[in-house]
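=== Structure Prediction Worksheet ===
Name of assembly: unnamed complex
Input type: mixed (protein and possibly other molecules)
Chain count: two
Listed entries:
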Amino acid sequence: MSKKVLDALTAAHPGAVVRTASPHGDDTAWIKRDELVKVATFLRDDPNMLFDAPVFCTCIDWLDWKPVGRPVAEHWDESKPRFTVAYQLRSTKHKHRIRLEIELPEADPRCPSLADMWPAFNWQERETFDMYGIRFEGHPDLRRIFLYEEFVGYPLRKDYPKEKRQPLVRRDDLPINPIKAPHAGEHK
Amino acid sequence: MGVELTTTRLEDAAKWAKQGKLARIPDWGRKFSLFTYPFVTACCGMEFMSVAAPKYDIARFGAEFPRFSPRQSDLLMIVGTITEKQGPALKRVYDQMAEPKWVIAFGVCASTGGFYQNYHAMPGADQVIPVDVYIPGCPPRPEQVLDALMMLMDRIQDGRGHSQLRLKRESIIAKQTEAEE
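=== Predicted Assembly ===
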């Protein structure tokens, strides 16, 4: 895929785009957090862009990222932002697509919400909030969507312990309490 | 315990009478008329359908009639992964079932959590309710299910099901407290 979309985006909003890349033809633009809504409005409304189909919204946690077969300089380290929120957009009219990536620091994982522009992002942003704890500012209803309200923490973050369970209910008849049931064990 | 081939209900009754255990006539009847509540959450459900369908035909053992209300059933088949979020629902279904009741954990996910080891999967349905028979397999073969059903039938005849033991315990305690009063 040509870099037509990326070039047009960079020309229209030079201050908002940090960098662009097209790995394997997948057009990707890194956007500054504060400019995201402006860029998204441009992508949706400009007659040459017309991104009308939201594909997905998700997040990447780079904590302890150790890729194989890549130069060391590209490795993630702790000086870089920990989270990346990714929005994938597609245009059914022009048949092109783009991915917007927004880098967020660990201490301040806020991201502008695009749920008002593409309603399909409403639940996807809720899921991202549920699993990674990204605060989407301006989201109409930012609650947990899959997990229960009692759940503490964000399970898809890399520092969430794999073994940690947060049960809602457990059996109360085990082990058999000899004080509660004095005759347990008398039966055959 | 030698293997005895029993093909009819009468032969089965004779076998248990020989062991002096046919005093439990109600249990002998119960084990041949289990009403299943299939708590199907995942892919094991396909194997459950296979067991229930004519090829393997669980009807031969008198457990062919799935009831889709826990209030009308006495055998809970937990078929598939149980998540932590489902725990309260599972417990509620179990509590609603008619006494005495039995539980079969169908497949590794229901038995131990299977290959899930993370925040959402419960490490076995027995974290929430007592399970009588566990069936390994991912998913289990229908023959394993029939084998488990036969084990459960023996257990019912023996009065060793979890709910049967609990009822017995409760009646002993009730008698004891009555005598003390």
